[in-house]
Design goal:
Elements: H1 20-23, H2 45-51, H3 55-59, E1 92-96, H4 99-108, E2 115-119, H5 134-142, E3 145-148, H6 158-166, E4 170-173, H7 201-218, H8 223-252, E5 260-265, H9 269-275, E6 278-283, H10 293-306, E7 310-314, H11 320-331, E8 337-342, H12 357-371, H13 377-380
Parallel strand pairs: 1-2, 1-3, 3-4, 5-6, 7-8
Helix pairs in contact: 2-7, 4-7, 7-8, 8-12, 10-11
The structure holds zinc ion (ZN).
Zinc ion binds at residues 128, 196, 265, 267, 345.
């Protein structure tokens, strides 16, 4: 098992964060204390910087570990986010491993000219199996702040990430911000959590909250930047709420008996939980293990019994297993169609609608709803 650097989170915050995580970012004045309301003045930039805490949590690297997802007592002490390393002038660079996490940073720093955001994993890239290249490592080293999704999503990057944290760089495991009680534990994997938290927009706001705090800490001492980040965070939070409602409408338009989502790998557990869909996959929560014949056979039985109308491929996973499910079902006289391509672990091409988190989630919801017989759902939110 790989040990990751962890991020600071205040346990007391957990119950009140969620949707408040972004909107309330400017009012998280001290560790463990959340001042209610979303209209707090952005003057707490410096305070948030202090609260966002512990460089030693990042430096601890391997020691900081996974335990408690940042809820461990050691993660609470607040000592100035970046210590002496805070740069109050000149350019700042954020490097994110996954596009979803990078998209949060991009949204929050829109209009903040001194901050640039780089993302390592492009369209169609599978984070479970991706190995960092030499140029990725150089990118990571060049960042003032490194964000990774975590919860063991980046299966092959653990060592590089831990090393980076040990070198004193601010390295944050964003997934550690999700309260443990809200994480899914996959069947047969008691010691591991499902890392695909972004599939639930509400859980995603925990990530957005922690990235907000980190970006505020990064831009500490730059008042205009801090105010802009706070403003962006509020707007983004509002957009995420709208997205959540739109997805709910699309899923509710699917006839109850057809709310079954079958995909290549088990990335949609949180999505299914939030919107009331049964979720099944050929492969488990990681694509590292090969899919077996038994997995395909299990799904075909399920499709036949439930008359499931469609199955889905994912942009970052080979379509081989899902195509085999379709073929084998047909041999048994059960026609199941290909419902379309979903974005799970990778987003779409940069610069396209699906190249944003909100765009990819909307695409997924519309594709799922249309293929599973959703009535009028697709027209609800306007056309693509
Ligand atoms: Zn995955």
């Amino acid at each position: 098992m790989v040990a990751y650097a962890t991020v600071t989170m205040a346990t007391k915050c957990d119950r009140v964060l969620g949707w408040l995580a972004v909107a309330g970012v400017a009012v998280i004045a001290a560790c463990g204390v959340v001042l209610a309301g979303c209209d707090g003045a952005p003057a707490q930039n410096a305070a948030a910087a202090k609260a966002s805490g512990t460089s030693e949590a990042a430096r601890g690297g391997a020691n900081a570990a996974r335990a408690g997802h940042g809820h461990s007592a050691g993660a609470h002490s607040a000592h100035g986010a970046h210590g002496a390393a805070v740069k109050t002038t000149g350019p700042l660079k954020i490097v994110a491993t996954t596009a979803q996490i990078g998209d949060i940073a991009r949204n929050l720093t829109q209009g903040v000219s001194e901050v640039t955001v780089a993302v390592l994993l492009g369209e169609g890239v599978d984070p479970h199996t991706y190995k960092l290249t030499r140029s990725d490592a150089a990118q990571l080293h060049s960042g003032d702040l490194v964000l990774f999704s975590g919860l063991h999503l980046e299966g092959k990057m653990g060592e590089v990430i831990s090393e980076l944290a040990r070198s004193g760089k601010r390295v944050v495991e964003v997934g550690a911000a999700i309260p443990e009680a809200q994480l899914l534990v996959p069947e047969g994997a008691a010691d591991q959590h499902d890392p695909h938290f972004w599939m639930d927009p509400e859980l995603f706001t925990f990530a957005t909250g922690v990235v907000s705090r980190e970006v505020l800490a990064l831009t500490a001492g730059r008042d205009a930047a801090g105010a802009k980040v706070t403003e962006n965070a509020r707007a983004y939070n509002a957009a995420l709420r709208e997205l959540d409602e739109e997805i709910r409408g699309l899923m509710e338009a699917i006839p109850q008996t057809q709310r079954v989502l079958i995909t290549s790998h088990d990335a949609f557990g949180y999505f299914g939980r939030r919107y009331g869909l049964a979720v099944h996959a050929v492969q488990g929560i990681s694509t590292e293990s090969e899919a077996g014949l038994a997995d395909v056979s299990r799904l075909i039985t399920l499709i036949t019994a439930g008359k499931v109308p469609a199955v889905f491929v994912e942009s970052s996973v080979s379509d081989r297993t899902i195509k085999s499910v379709i073929e084998q079902s047909a041999k048994r006289g059960q026609i199941v169609k290909l419902g379309g391509e979903l974005f799970s672990d990778a987003m779409g091409k940069p610069g396209t609608i699906e190249g944003t988190y909100i765009g990819m989630m909307r695409h997924n919801a519309r594709t799922i709803s249309a293929a599973l017989g959703g009535k009028n759902g697709a027209s609800e939110g306007g056309s693509k």
